[in-house]
Please model this.
Amino acid sequence: MISLVVEQPMEFIMMQLNPSVSSSIPSEQPMEEKAITYMDFVLFKAAADGDVEAFSDCQVALDCLVDGSQNTVLHIYSRTGGRLVVKNVRAFPCFQKRVFEGEFSINFVEQLVDKCPSLLLQRNANWEIPLHIAARHGHSGIVKVLIERANVVLHEDPERGLVATGARQMLRMRDEEENTAFHLAARYGHLDVLRLLAKEDPDFAFFANTSGETPLYLAAEGGYHGMVTEMLDNCKSTVYGGPHGRTALHAAVLAGDEKTVRKLIEAKMQLTKQTDDNGRTPLHYAAHFSKRSIAKVLLEKDASAAYISDKERGMSALHMAAWQGEQGIMEEIISNCPGCCGMVDKRGWNFLHFAVVAVSPKKLKRFLVDNKINDFTNRNLFHEKDVNGYTPIHISLTGPARQLLGWFSFSSFLLDRELQVRGWKSEQYFAQMTRKKQDIRQLLNDIGDNAEVEGLRVHPNFREKVKDEDDVSFIEYVEKTRETHLLVATLVATVTFAAAFTVPGGYKSDEQGDATLSRDPAFKAFIITNTLAFVSSLLAVLLHFLLVCLHWSLVNLRFQVIGLAEILTFSAMIAMVIAFSTGSYSVLQSSMGFAIATCSLGLTFIPGFSEDFL
Model:
């Protein structure tokens, strides 16, 4: 043991018990010297194991016997929970595993406290008393004994100032971070300890520590539903606040604990609309972190929270659901608050500006149709401009998901009606579109790089960098697309032309020019559909040929012709598939099962094509 001499105030115990006492003590208070002894390995091991005999003959006062962090014997025992005992636990019918458990000794704690009552309130270097240590490590047995002995000993020692409410004062003592035993039990999820503390001091006011965290907030943040329920049901004074202006409901949403969310809303409905320092409600976080079930609960209890925008970007919960591509949460919000569809953020974006980037066009179309967003009143959302004049259509053409939505024509995507009304020439129009394209790409990249909420970034589509080879002029892009469609139409016309002269089943040998299966209904269907495919594809080729002669100044007419050629090409492809199926059926009728199987497999192209196109 190593002995040192340090100075301690005479009112040390009273200051430990009640920090307010320190304000009445003059700064010139004379200090008394106190001998401190640092325990050696033997005493430290005895303190950890709860060996009371090692301290029976100790000549040093127990409140002066500490380790390097000023932990007393009671601090050390409160941390370890007693001697580790090896127990064999059956893990399988034929196997056992060894488990180390602490063997708690009530007698050790009682004798220490009886011998030196000041140990109950003595602080270590972090201003923690033994109750803090026991609560942090979840040793409910030690907590119970400390409370019981405090209620007895503190009343029996009035000369030391250990009076008044006994254990309640011990429960309310704070460490250097302003944590009480309630805070530590809640942070580490020790329900049994919290129950003991709440039973002893149900009137305790849940003040915040230096980080702004209350015990209720810590329990909600950790997802400890039982602890939240315990505090709400058994404590009279409950504070819901947390750091950065958040509440316990914010914490429960971030933890993804639906049961705790329901419990907190039942206790205090106003929490659903309470915002943090950034102006975000719990619904904002449920939308951003893709917690649909929790968002549904919040909206069912109070749907008005969907109309609240945050301070940083002016975004509603619907915006945040859209920029994460969360169709389910968007559906919940729109079904409960259809009026929030038209809300815009500080840059003038409605939720579709984000959705066309984060959601694939096929899924977005299905979502909008199912939720009736494409009706007369809401369809204009696609044409609403932001502060820079960009509509969701502009964003969709420039972002990673550059595809066409089924119910819009090709021209409605590409034409800027305002420029046409002003009578701008096509060269000026396309130069303007190229500049818009570059500006929108930069805007999307900025959103992807800077938009982050609590460490979770937005949908990866916002962070997808556009490749240099894709940065071609608008006219070049349209021309390449037209050439591809022309090639497809030409191939269909060639195949169907050849099929018309090499009919299924061949020709009769005795009658010149007569097809063998000419009287078969399936063969007749083959001839009709093959002819339709040939004529449609040939008309599409003709329209593409006429486009070469059509000047770019007639922009609207060009895109109408392109759209018509596409419809004819798609129709020719469907007719060609039907012709193939009916022709195969006509020549395989002798084996009816094989014929039906072949025809069915061929016709599977049509629903697959419709799904991809629509």
Observations:
- The chain is about 50% helix and 5% strand.
- The first strand starts at residue 2 and ends at 9.
